[in-house]
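Students often ask why we bother encoding 3D structure as a string. The short answer is that it lets us treat folding as translation between two languages. Here is a chain of 305 residues written in the first language.
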Amino acid sequence: MHNIVINLRSVDRKRLDRLHERTTSPLVSDDIWYIHTVLAQCFLPYRDPNTRDWMRQNGNYSIILTSGTLRNPKDPKQLIEAGLPYGPKPRLFQSYACTQAIKLQSPVIPVECSMTAMMRELGLQPSGGKEGPIRTFKEQITRFASCHFTIVGPGPHGGDSYIKAPPIKKFDVWFPPDPDQGTLWPSEIVLTDDYYYSLKDHAVPFDFRALRTIQNNARAQDIYLWMTQRLCRIDEIKPLYMHWKELHEMFGGNLKGMRRFKETFRIDLTAARVAYPDAKMEEYKDGFIFRASRPPIPKTKLFVK
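And here it is in the second language, the structure alphabet:
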């Protein structure tokens, strides 16, 4: 009999430790977060596209993002382009904003104080400075708040139907004390009425402790949140077959070449699967088979009023 030794990376060991923690400790209401089902299916860029406009397709639907503009803090008569939100931080924030709206039962999200609390919950030190994490959070939140969202789907007569879907109605911007810092950030965000009431009807619950284990991996976050809202809706006798082409359309981002995408997707799927151990799937020649799975948050655990 041979002993097999597996050398785990520190990040893998941490994920397994947190999985053990989640499975051996009771779920409390503070652990339950929410995401709008649309945001669990239409994803932000993984890297800075360095463009004003960006589009991503998911089956028959696409999301179009257009960068917003702000007044230049150094010269209020001039405009600056905010840039498009990308990477893991705006994903964490959109989940946090949805959660706050549901738990506060209000479309008004106080950002400045809540962002610091969120960073501490994520295990991040809310330190400032040019390279500090709080600066990048502020920048990504501002990009997300000012961004224009459009959903494109099948039209009634065979064409395309465009739906303006901005989640943010209003945001109050603080100017930095030192204009040379160049970072603006919202102190308060107000969701649009359409988005807020749609969120109340279509909020997907998930275990925040699981998301925390993949907080620095944007693609793993997307895969995890997509699985939380999709796998529980799969028919027990009719699994979901996803071809590599479909998976690349959803989760490919700026990865070019199917070989590289397959390698990256398998790694990030493994991370998402550790976050969601009840997810049932297996790889086959042309892609993956996803099967009916228990949701991360049982319906009896919901606390939405």
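Translate back mentally: Residues 252 and 261 are 6 Å apart (CA to CA). Keep this in mind for the problem set.
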